[in-house]
């Protein structure tokens, strides 16, 4: 009986651990992105993301990002920016102070090109991450402050279907510039709709792979890129 019981107990323990990470749940990300033109070669990047472990709730992360874009030419953009990230690292219910706060500075370079009907975008990003995380496993009053550096590369392809509808795909690799070289990989596919000349919405699916876990996420993204130089007509 013991030979049967022990493997079952081990399996149950592993199942509980998997449940606590939320890996077997499908979460959702609500996203807003904006590129607001303010001068011939300058625009402002604005972004807000609300991420959840489950489609019905269970907060995971708030991300707010902004930056100044310099348009070298229509197919090359350099960006310097800042991001604020508030993360609940636990899937299960946890104390209020079980979170991680991050202030992030990033430098970014985007190159665009077209092959056949596909519009390609190559995004290179460096990040300096200043993280303050509560150690919930020992003393909740102890903050673990650290600085990390990371490089990211994303290749994105957009395929117009009509003047209104399009498909969007990307793969993004995260590389840690300290221990544990591989950070994560994000594979994404979406169906997009142009609402107006400068706005669109994307309904997508993201597979987010870490070294020890894989998470699936629905994504709803709203993109709004107005030219702020235009004066409203009286």
From TrEMBL:
It holds the Pfam family DUF2490. It comes from the Bacteria. Keywords: Signal. Residues 1-18 form the signal peptide. InterPro entries: DUF2490. This is DUF2490 domain-containing protein.
